[in-house]
Amino acid sequence: MVYLSFLLLLCLTCRLAHGVGLHGFHSHGLEEPRSLRQSKNIIEAWIQQPVDHFNPRDNRTWSMRYLENSRFFKRDGPILIMIGGEWAISRGFLETGLMYGLASTHNAIMYYTEHRYYGKSKPTKDTSPASLQYLSVDQALADLARFIETRKRREGFENSVVIVFGGSYAGSVATWLRLKYPHLVQGALASSAPILAKADFYEYYEVVTESLRRHSEKCVDEVKAAFKAVEESLAAEDGPQKLQQYFNLCDVPDANSPNDREHLMNILVEAFGGTVQYDKVENGRTKIAACCETMTNARFGTPLQRLAHFVSSGKKCLENNYEKFVKLYRNETWGAQPDIMRQWFYQTCTEYGYYQTTNSNKTIFGSSLSLRYFTDICRDFYGEYYNNEFLNVRIKRTNVMYGGLRPDLRNVIFTNGNVDPWHALSVLQDLNTLSPAIFINGSSHCRDLYSDSDTDVQDLTQARAKVRKIIGSWISS
């Protein structure tokens, strides 16, 4: 089974920038690793794909973008494919990272494919619900199958082993590609892949809470106190006006509107979700450590004032109005929004859910973020048809079609970090001897897809070594 100045109405870029996909409204896609030197071998190319793979009466086509690096390739060498998800692809994973290292070792050709409806890969004239009906994992998998079959036939790669790599939502796609098209794909690495579709994903903030607690109990206590103060302020007579001042909000929260209240809470809660999900060492300390230092620093005032400093320090006014938010993302014109949220949220409304609520007493973020808020967004963005009943039917279909947490497959590696909140929807124990699960203590979302670093925890370094050995055995068998 990724969301993207970026969100005009949910501007938290200072805290969440350069993250890896699948985080609520802030889906950036994979953070491209940075190479010390740019490869001259990378080319951008296009392949024609059907708009609808499953309707022979529909002859419309579109151009799917991909990148290629043949620097290390030798005849009959393997084909390694990084699968794009809810983002625009770029050069990074074809210049460095785990897959790049494997290509160098095994004389492989590398590809990076762009998912339909993201980046420059636009199958339809707009993003109306009628157009977005072709945005589904079924269609995306068929795109990849056709890409692999076409490249092997045209380039004479018939004897080449194909290994796919994916992180976050693209990790789910990698899993399901191996499941549905095993004759085309001989193995897959699924990093931080939430392969279980689930509407009320309350476990997300349970993991966020525990990841903060591992840093310090005091941090957890102060965050909990801050969110309690926000909820009390929303209920107080002059509380919304005070919150506008504290957080430098562009609008006074409408305390009589459930969606406006929850929209504000989602902005605040996501600041912590993004910090934990994208945790890594920056400037000598982890992002979680930096967050907790702010939330436990009495010099910033009360817990509420510390929260305001953490979320909105150094920013222009923070857009928080639900109706403005809906108006922006209801627009069906390509490029009308600053990010990919209209497309990605459509996928969550029609296939996955993944809605990160606070419906658990094991979290510290209050109880003001409900499933109803997210399903209201589905209807407000795309129409009354996209309601809670429709969502539940579609989630059931996804899990039946793709096996939920127990897909029947071989040669798939599932990697997850215990810091990453998305691991709660992934495979954490071996499916069988040929599909192992590697659980990485101290690691966050998709960190195993990058090259080894001096700041990596030992478990992460060992996990990459294990992945290299397994994939090497697939290639040589």
From TrEMBL:
* A Pfam family this chain is assigned to: Peptidase_S28
Q: So which domain of life are we looking at?
A: Eukaryota
Q: Name one GO biological process term.
A: proteolysis
List the signal peptide residues: 1-19
Output the Gene Ontology terms for molecular function: dipeptidyl-peptidase activity; serine-type exopeptidase activity
Q: Mind telling me which SUPFAM superfamilies this protein's record contains?
A: alpha/beta-Hydrolases
**What keywords appear on the UniProt entry?**
Glycoprotein, Hydrolase, Protease, Signal
Q: Does the keyword Signal apply?
A: yes
The entry's family comment says:
Belongs to the peptidase S28 family.
Query: Can you say what this protein is called?
Result: Serine protease K12H4.7
Provide the species name.
Tetragonisca angustula
